[in-house]
């Protein structure tokens, strides 16, 4: 089983996170930010990973530190659980439509950190969640998984739909990338290392 458990405490946030890439239950998310809980739950369900997150952050400031730090810890946990990445597909790509919106996520568990974020939101707030934190979250995630991540809203209007399509698409792309493929012997790289 590919698992990781991380606890990270700073003056801004206290985070406990457990995940299992090879189990789908449980999923239990509590960050204190309703919209972010909604997004992380979708991400876990669509990536089919068991994910437990308990975050206690400085929400009296705003939701920035909590969202960014959960992205950091989730990224660290995925990287740790993947280990040497032997036998995995490595790449994943998913388009997810949501009514009028179409979102794309394409990623490579390359060991190199890169984010391309080509998305615009009209609505600055989604509940207590600042819409600009979508990019902050994925930046923290990509840099700590050490993956190349391309996100794009192909078209769309509603900010909730746009954010949701990106979290779902990234979950589905990640499931494809982390899946062990019996045709792949060792690490899926001509370098021999990911
Ligand atoms: Mn929704």
UniProtKB/TrEMBL annotation:
Its EC top class is lyase
Q: Name one Pfam family in it.
A: IGPD
* Predominant place of localization: cytoplasm
Q: Which CDD domains match?
A: IGPD
- What InterPro entries does the annotation carry? IGPD_sf, ImidazoleglycerolP_deHydtase, ImidazoleglycerP_deHydtase_CS, Ribosomal_Su5_D2-typ_SF
Q: Which catalytic reaction applies to this protein?
A: D-erythro-1-(imidazol-4-yl)glycerol 3-phosphate = 3-(imidazol-4-yl)-2-oxopropyl phosphate + H2O
> Does Lipid biosynthesis appear among the keywords?
no
What EC number is given for this enzyme?
Answer: 4.2.1.19
Which pathway is recorded for this entry?
Amino-acid biosynthesis; L-histidine biosynthesis; L-histidine from 5-phospho-alpha-D-ribose 1-diphosphate: step 6/9
Subcellular location field: Cytoplasm
Any one GO MF annotation of this record: imidazoleglycerol-phosphate dehydratase activity
Q: Which keywords accompany this UniProt record? A: Amino-acid biosynthesis, Cytoplasm, Histidine biosynthesis, Lyase
Q: Which family does it belong to?
A: Belongs to the imidazoleglycerol-phosphate dehydratase family.
> Which HAMAP family does its entry note?
HisB
Q: Which PANTHER family match?
A: IMIDAZOLEGLYCEROL-PHOSPHATE DEHYDRATASE, IMIDAZOLEGLYCEROL-PHOSPHATE DEHYDRATASE HIS7
Name-wise, this protein is Imidazoleglycerol-phosphate dehydratase
**Taxonomic lineage per UniProt?**
Bacteria, Bacillati, Bacillota, Bacilli, Lactobacillales
């Amino acid at each position: 089983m590919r698992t990781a458990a991380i606890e990270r405490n700073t003056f801004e946030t206290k985070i406990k996170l457990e995940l299992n890439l090879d189990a789908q239950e449980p999923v239990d998310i509590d960050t204190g930010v309703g919209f972010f809980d909604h997004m992380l739950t979708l991400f876990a369900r669509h990536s089919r990973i068991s994910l437990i997150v308990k975050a206690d952050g400085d929400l009296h400031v705003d939701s920035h530190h909590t969202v960014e730090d959960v992205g950091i810890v989730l990224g660290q946990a995925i990287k740790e659980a993947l280990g040497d990445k032997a036998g995995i597909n490595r790449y994943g790509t998913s388009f997810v439509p949501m009514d009028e919106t179409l979102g794309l996520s394409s990623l490579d568990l390359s060991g190199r950190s890169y984010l391309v974020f080509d998305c615009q939101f009209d609505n600055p707030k989604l509940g207590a969640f600042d819409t600009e934190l979508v990019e902050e979250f994925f930046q923290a995630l990509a840099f700590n998984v050490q993956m190349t991540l391309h996100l794009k809203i192909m078209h769309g209007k509603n900010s909730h739909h746009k954010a949701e399509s990106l979290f779902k698409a990234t979950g589905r792309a990640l499931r494809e990338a982390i899946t062990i493929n019996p045709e792949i012997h060792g690490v899926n790289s001509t370098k021999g290392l990911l």
